[in-house]
Amino acid sequence: MTYDDVKSILVLLALLVAGGIFLRRVYQLLWANLRLGQRSNPFNRWGERIKGVFIYVAGQFRLFRVLIPGTGHFFIFWGFLILSLTILQAIVEGLVSFANPHFLLPLIGSFGALALLQDLFAVLVIIAVIYALVVRLIVNPKRYLGSHKSQGVMVLMFIFTIMLSLLVMNGIRINLGQDPLQVWRPISTAVGKIFSGAAAGTQQVIKEIAYWTHLGVVLLFLTELPEGKHFHVVTSVPAVLLRNLEPHGRLPAATDLNGQVGVSKIEQFRWRQMFDFYTCTECGRCQDVCPAYASGLPLSPKLLMMGLRDNLKERGAALRAHAPNSTTQATLARTLVGDVISESVLWACTTCFACDQECPLFIEHISPIVDMRRFLVIEGRVGTELQDALANLGRYGNSFGQSERMRARWTQPIQPPIKDARREAVEYLWFVGDYASYSPTLTDVTVKTAEVFHKAGLDFGILYDSERNAGNDVRRVGEEGLFEMLVEKNSMALSKCNYQAIVTTDPHTYNTLKNEYPRNGDEPRPVLHYAELLDQLITAGKLKFSKKLGYKVTYHDPCYLGRYNGIYDAPRRVIEATGCELIEMPRHKDGSACCGAGGGRIWMAEGEIQERPSESRIREAVKLGGVTTFVVACPKDISMFRDAVKTTGNESRLEVKDLIELVHAAL
Amino acid sequence: MNIVILVKLVPDLVEELTIDSSGVALDTAWLRLIINEFDDHAIEQGILLKERGGGQVTVVAPDIEGVDDVLFTAAAKGADRLIKVKGDFTGVNNHALARAFTAVVKELQPDLMLTGVQANNDLDGSVGPLLAGCLEMPYVGYISGVSLNEGKSKVRKEYPGGLIAEMDVTLPAVLGIQAAEQPPRYVAVSKVRQMMKTSTIEERTVSGLDMVGGPTIGRMFKTEAGQHATMLTGSPDEVAAKLVGIFKELGVL
Amino acid sequence: MSQDIYVVIEHLRGQVSEISFVMLAGARDLVKGLGGNVVAVLLGHDAQGLAGNLAADKVLYFDHPALAEFTSDAYQKVLIGLISKDQPRVILFGSTSIGTDMASTLSIKLGLPMVSSCRSFSAGGKFVSQICGGKIMVEGDLPGPTALVTMVPGGYKAEQGQSAQSPAITLVDVPALESLRVTLANYIEPEAGDVDIAKEPVLVSVGRGIQNQDNIVLAEELAKALGGVVSGSRPVIDQGWLATSRLVGKSGKSVKPKVYLAFGISGAPEHVEGITNSDTIIAINTDPAAPIFGVAKYGSEIDLFDLIEVLTEKVKQSKGG
Hints:
Chain A is 53% helix and 4% strand. Chain A is mainly alpha-helical. Chain B has one domain: 3-Layer(aba) Sandwich (Rossmann fold).
């Protein structure tokens, strides 16, 4: 038995053992556990999905949103792919070493350009790894709070060792004249020079040590891969391939859920959601953009995913255990909502979509939060303030607890009277919304909106007291039954009207009417936010301004208009048309920072907050030199930001105005 | 423990109330009827007692517009039986309602009857003590806590200033609930809708509704304030300044 | 059968409740039209002293250990006998935890008509009652032959029911009081709060309009600036946002501050009952039809959230600067 024979046997054994551990674990996690979950809807639009794999996985597109770490990961990812062939080489070479100790893979083994690429990437990966280690160990950014840093450091060390041992192997092979492609490997050659002083025999030994180190760490990494955050290596391509292509602003309805509304146990999630839990890389980018987290509330989308992942693993194992014991019983007794995820975490979410948008692997954080909220609502585990709001929404169709008859009281002073869309045909049916109708401080903005529509010669009408809360936030709070009831009532009222398009004042109303209300027929009538409508009217010349306002303004992109529905430019064009100078806040367009009112939070007690999201936003605006006006396009934003201007003591510096007020003033 | 809860529906004070053309009754055109808030507390207290000590909870209500929703909501909270008393209840007073309830209650033979201590439209007493009179049972009102054991109940009766009297009441008895031991729980709309599909409302009929014992209304009118406050108007700044001036006048500042 | 007006006196732990005097004043008003006497009915044990300042023509006094403190069974047994025998024209009960425990049941047991929530009597001996949260008034003839009436405060002043001279007391035999189905076990004192709101000169009071517990701090800031404390109406205490010791109203305390600031309080009768002795009531409520504006001296429809912090600032400035 020669060394090479033993080598072959050992490599085979190691491969079988490590491979076996890896495959068994993948089976347990991806097959056995996921089978416990609920069915997911079938997938379609494969062309788009595959294109996404190219852009988001191959192109690492979303990773560049945090530029330098993103670039680092780009090289680690591509290095991994390119250098995987060297791992293949090492394995095959080991397996057949009893026959040929210098076996080279066909094609790949003689492809010079590939060899050069591999050499370069080995260095780039090493640089990226060193950078990543510096970030984790020295810089220690906040997004890693709560992440398993030691795991990350360990894997980086693995990668470093794999790269280094590869270069040493290559270098010595070059020294011993065993590499036909040696001209293509300048880096390896340079590394080889370190050992060129030693005797050939010694170098051979060092090379074998490097080989076993290389293979050993690779196989060790393989067994570690399914544990923790590195599983994303396996799940990332399927995750991007099977990502949700529905409009962002559409949550699954009861009919999509096979009767399982509300999740209180991990196995009640859909298997596609479970797949998301495994895919979390603990990168913390979601945590960095979460307004709830920034304000000091206990929610971190990252920690939420990690908690769900860990619960899935431990509960999955306990449910499948052949011989249950006290430990499995204790595990099974732990409640998902309560023990694993606390209620305060679930209620903290404003559903602003920053996390879902930021995640490089399209993990959906809002979806499981709403699922668990649905459970809490069914159980009646709802705080008193939210309970009151929901009771009012159920009884009166608005959260203010005022009679339906008062909904259109704001229209009384308007001449000529606004058309009743229930009685007359109109071109635009204006769905006004609760806050714009009932809030005493906001009705003058609503009146101005009516005046602007009138001046533009718009043929419009409203539903008067047949309008109910559209239900966007009722659904996001988890009261799916009430949402269905509101949809029924509003749809009934709308079905009796004769209109060409719907225009809304509130982005939340806009989102649900556009994305979640039942579509009638093949050509559903368009739903517009008034910013879109104003933009259209201005472009068509139907809305003319008599003066240029010349204010220096900044614009706050509402979550449900911007991130959810992609409308960024229309309001900006309107601002420009009124002759104002727009200065952007650092967090603008899809980076806009939520005001904190969404997800039903405006109906809840604030909780233990360190800095209100709205106050943080106002401070950001104030830092922009010379800006006097803070422009919004949502009634709730007006309320939230006017309060924040007061509480931050900026009344003399900044005034909050709705977009319509600028238009009204410039007419 | 067999618990029966008597519920009535009353005008929603959120709506503007007007007098009808007869001059002695409320105009029903815009009137919304909702569950009497105190009866809602009675339901909550009944469910709490069932959760603590077992038993059955039956909710009884007159057949008025909106009663189905009230009963199904009670079922969603945990009530076991729902009974609707059919008859013409328009303009009916509490004496008649109590008599109508009496027949149903006698059939149910409860250990304990709970109802709200009062309702906003009571003009001839409250349903609770009237019912107790019809059934010849003891009645204690202004209850904010109940505990049960073996044919007796210990109740917490509220007096002004936060004073509480703990009283022992032999069962069966009628209690007038001021406040349940916890605020009425939230019930998801989906649960109520589910109850609409799975629960049934039993019906009982009463022939004549005997209103003897109540007063005859000569005139009903909207409260005219003898005086009205001097209203301060303006921006928050202006109103605040005026108030500071008033405080100074009164010697508070 | 007589034209007398009987008033069932309410007392708790040795103190006659204010409603008793209000009822006596009401009875005095009634006898003007109907004739007859005002007869105070006092049930108790060693309680003759309580009759000292009742403005009644005479007092019927029932003494028995079981009557020492109110319990509905014992008191009803006594009154059934009395009313059947004497058949007065009207019997007044308080619309309270004591009076309402008895009046309706007696109406059924004795087959006598009743009227509740009566605030006052108008010319011709008509009752004037207040229902629907104080928004609706009902007037009608007092039913016969004997009308049981529960009274709410507000129509008469307690002083009108008090007299310097003690009325004549007649001791009446008490029927057997056995197998009582309701017995008093003990009283529980209210939580000794950190403050006694009945003694404070300034009260910043909050109602449903404060919306949630987090906003209470705004009222506290203002109260501190004005040298007063925060109190609240029933919905706020029921939610647990303020301690019971801060409750103002029928089931809470009656207060008599120099200034009573009511933020987001509608002014339902149960609350107004507790504030009528305030020197000046100032009400802030966005509902122009809120009943509180009928008892307040000054008011504003402004949103309390727009006003309160600005007001606190101005108060602080006027003190500091």
